[in-house]
Amino acid sequence: MNITAGTADTTAPTAPTSLTASGTTSSSTNLSWSAATDNVGVTGYDVYQGATLLGSTASTSYAVSGLTASTTYSFSVRAKDAAGNVSAASNTVSVTTSSVSITYCTSQGNNTADERIGRVTIGSINNASTGTAGYENFTAQSTSAARGSSQTITITPTWTGTVYSEGYAVFIDYNQNGVFTDAGETVWTKTASTTTPVSGTFTIPATAVLGTTRMRVSMKYNAVPTSCEAFSYGQVEDYTINITSTARGEETSNASRVEIGLYPNPTRDFLTITSISEKATYRAYNLLGQVVAEGKINNGTINVTNFKAGNYILEVSDNETTVTKRFIKE
After folding, report:
1. Which of 150, 241, 242, 253 is the most buried (most CB within 10 A)?
2. Is the model's pLDDT at 68 over the cut of 60?
């Protein structure tokens, strides 16, 4: 009896075509494309963000989430068949996410006739605030502050006559969720006094979300103000803080080092970390800045099965370099 072995399938599918994006928001977009063809049959598609594999699907559409506002991304798709043959990449589609519109609570002094904020100085902000409204919006003025850096703010009160005791508070929306009441977001307070000027120092947490966010400066007669308060005498001013990466996170001992990758993102069970050594460790934070897990990265993966659904910040340390990434647990 003669037995003839089957011929292996070595033919790759055709590349998907007409890749488009629609319904783009500040954190998501929807991809769709025309189906590929294959001599046996297409079994699925791999979706890439740049060179990073986001995930796979059997359909001709894919919902991308976990993107950063006001950021440009590029996507492509490859088809695959049951034999493991992979097509060339589809056309590349470029997507720019929209900006996030956040509404903050109101806060103000109801009367500035006797006292108000005269000047605020922090980083590159040096604002002689001559306005007399109980609330002043100075968010067009901004300064940058790196994660882990120490920042000093100086507030100079203005009295029109009698010198009254004033209390102070500074709030920063570190996780950019539109409130100042999360842990650590009251960054500095001073009990009421007639000292002028007053200064305070605080540290930007390593878990602060990168990008621009709101800083609120409040001065209240005879008491420390809260973040969403209307009080009888004093003033409230809002500014913008641009949170940047830590200096350590930007350092590298090897200029040719490949950037650490993270996928799939979002994920349900495991995260795969690329371009790391066997000594790499991690620390995961929730958006309140609380450590939810830490340890050694085993075989390039981290098990997040027991994480609650939501957004997290992952800090990967390897070869004296620390890189911070964001991910979503579905």
Report:
1. 241
2. yes
